[in-house]
Amino acid sequence: MARVYSDVNARLGPSWYDYESMRIDGNKPDRYEIVRRIGGGKYSEVFEGIDSFNEETCVIKVLKPVAKKKIKREIKILRNLAAAPMSLVMEYVQNTDWKELHATISETEIKHYLFQLLRALDFVHSRGIIHRDVKPGNIMFDRQRRKLRLIDWGLAEFYHPGTELHIRVASRYYKGPELLVGFKHYDYSLDMWSVGCILASMIFRKEHFFRGRDNEDQLLKILKVLGTEEFGRYLTTYSLYLQAYNQELVQSYPRQPWSRFVTSDNRLNVSPDSIDLLDKLLRYDHQQRLTAAEAQAHSFFNIVRLETPSNPAECLSDSGFYSA
Asked: Which Gene3D superfamilies match (predicted)?
């Protein structure tokens, strides 16, 4: 059971989380004009657009034909997170590409980026929702304005204690160990592992800190850093059995000190506080990871905590929908 917000959906009731019975009433998209394609993936295409009502730049997300249940789930989550949902038309954020950002980001920027991300996640978790795909590609960050938006709610799901969840979620480099060993009773802490991976990438200036070729190799990359001793305890604690075809996964590996990853190129981003925060996020046992609220209280964020706006919902995007 999650250490925090475990009863949110039970308390709010089916009207909050029952997306399958939800009715979708869409609006006409004539107000928006597509300018250019800016991205896309398995479930959607994303375009830059113009809102003809106010001439503002926006982002338009066009959903591909997928299971209606999945579309309803995403829209229900967006409705729950937004104060006034209108369309799958989002604000345009002057995003800095991750390839550039991770290699040039300063310690101050890391603090602003991570703190806003944690505020967004605590807001989402407090409403009984797991994002399940936290990664740099789903985070828009305007460096000049230090403005962050967490996007793409296609894999998000409502959390119910004791309910099995799909493990084929999240992007490989940011998958928590629970997914890689087939543990289906995960919770909000899954998102916190992903935050830890992002922090490691930033302070050590690696595009992806754990970069496996496939899921087994991804787990192997984690074992070679965090060691197999704690991993064995984790499996025992939750009565998990590791079924692996890669024989390297059954070998023993010592835990590596974080200092091993410090170089002359990243030294300025590494501090005792950043290492301590990282160590408390990248834990095999999801019950031992910091929650989003606990992470915000960490001394690493002492400087930025007083500078941050009061409304965490400002750090979310994909705030509504229309149907074409």
From this structure: Phosphorylase Kinase, domain 1, Transferase(Phosphotransferase) domain 1
